Amino acid sequence: MEYTPIQVRNTDGITHGFTSDNTPKNSSQKPTTTNYASRHSHDQESVISDSESSSSGASSGQLPSFNDGLVRLFEGDRVHDLIKRRFVSGLGLLGKQATVVAIHRNSYSGVLEQARMQSFQIFVKAMENKCGGDANVKFGWYGGTRDEICEIVKHGFSARMIDNSNGLYGCGIYLSPDDSPVECVKKLSVEKDGLRHLLLCRLILGKSEVVHPGSDQCHPSSEEFDSGMDNLSSPKKYILWSTHMNTHILPEFVISFRAPSRLKGYFRIPESLRRPNSPWMPFPALISTLSKFLPPTTTKLIIKYHRDHREKKISRQQLIQQVRKTVGDKLLISVIKSFRTEILGTSSNFEGKRVQKGVKNAMNSDEKKDGMEELIMHT
């Protein structure tokens, strides 16, 4: 079977979140390779061809911090404006304070870059055959430093970029949906020039499965699945397994922006989602925070307890007791207090008393209900 090279102006009808207002988001017709192109040709071809015509000669306007494989897009270019609008709207409150400095497009100018594009198209077609015509191709954000992004664009993802987050969602590359860049932005470090950078990638998701916190999964659980999500109905994480990181991810755009140096105030949990009457902390958040203070072996042990509880091998009370025994109440108090004050924005003195009271209750072995359960919400 012959495959033609992927042309920037014709991406074979691959769909993404940057649709025009008159493009239907849902269709009852089952997509195929043929009708994909026809259904989305208006959006795809006009958007991408616009970027070609306005930026093909823009190499002289490139930011000096990026390599020659990235071509800068400018204000007024349709692709530039679509990405900028999508990015800013996805930031919520932070969007009003963020300034998009530049957007670059991967030109795939080298021989190896062209080969990676062709490989991606081959896997799209293979996934379409596997899934009955729909490869479930989406866009996702990946955050990194300037050097990391340049390395990805030039060489692809490497093993050291695999995010296992101490096993929180398995071993793979974590990306955020194109309409929700917040999770990536939270983790970005500020460069010396004050910029932060995000990579917008095209992803082959195929059929996704739920990956629960505490998973040590490194590949699809069966041949039925191809990728992972933290939530199928409203995902905040796309998990592309390490086995697929350079076949199912195609880096396409880099967005560089400025934002306030301190971001926590912009990402506070809405009042409707808070639980002010109980100093709760989600267990995945607890594991993530504890991993900063504990050795990897201890963190993995806590993850194992959490997984055992999810699999109903141990009771909730046993889980809490094992965590307290492994971590110690002093560190738990500190971590939970920090979570409440910094993430939920509650009063430090008030929260300190609330947390200490919860741990004190938890230490009372004669109580029927373990008081520590008031501090940790299992999810």
UniProtKB/TrEMBL annotation:
Disordered: annotated segments: 1-62
Domain (RST): residue spans on this chain: 274-345
PANTHER family membership: INACTIVE POLY [ADP-RIBOSE] POLYMERASE SRO4-RELATED
Entries under Pfam families matching the protein: RST (PF12174)
Single GO MF annotation: NAD+ poly-ADP-ribosyltransferase activity
Lineage: Eukaryota, Viridiplantae, Streptophyta, Embryophyta, Tracheophyta
UniProt keywords, alphabetically: Developmental protein, Nucleus, Stress response
Isomerase is among the record's keywords: no
Occurrences of domain PARP catalytic (ranges): 54-281
Matches recorded under Gene3D superfamilies: 3.90.228.10
GO cellular component: nucleus
Domain of life: Eukaryota
Protein's name according to its UniProt entry: Probable inactive poly [ADP-ribose] polymerase SRO5
Low complexity: bias regions: 46-62
Location of the protein in the cell: Nucleus
